[in-house]
Amino acid sequence: MSRIPILYWPRSTKSDSDYQTARKVINTETGIMPDVITDDINIAEIFESQPDAVIYFPVFYGSTGWWGELLGANAYIVGKLIISPECQLMTIKNKVCEHKHGAQHQLFAAEIYPTSGFFKKMSSEIATITDMLATDAGTILALFSGRDKNKFVNILESTGNSYLGCIGRY
Questions:
Q1: Would you tell me which CATH number, out of the four given (3.30.70, 3.40.50, 2.30.30, 3.90.1750), belongs to the domain 106-169?
Q2: 136: which of 28, 51, 104, 128 is 20 to 30 A away, CA to CA?
Q3: Which helix H or strand E contains 55, and what residues bound it?
Q4: Pair 39, 88: CB distance under 8 Å
Q5: What is the pLDDT of residues 14-58, one digit of tens each?
């Protein structure tokens, strides 16, 4: 069964060269022109109604917190496509899809207390921060990239921080 491509585009599509390029790249990769969603996206609902869908989620240069929509949605990042220096598309599938394990990088989401001790303890050999978003509660929702989930979770929890889950691999 072929997968249904969906392009989420949260900004105006008129005269947007990144939008046009994204559609062409998806069409070239899948052989199908993607359906486009420009309103708020509910990834969990899409995967519930279309388990075989592939969602192309743009990440624009300088954006923060783009991955928040993925938490709890059975989302699984399987790759990315570079559209321009300002835009890349994250390729997202339903977590029930087959995926490879091994030495791939994983994307871990966590809620952390921003202390220097935490950042000193979390070495680049375990995981590196790829995105952060401050909350009103004084914590940070952070996205980490690393290879060893168990080591990451152990260090994270030993410093009193909360592990929210793995949202994908690449």
A1: 3.30.70
A2: 128
A3: strand 53-60
A4: no
A5: 999 999 999 999 999 999 999 999 999 999 899 989 999 999 999
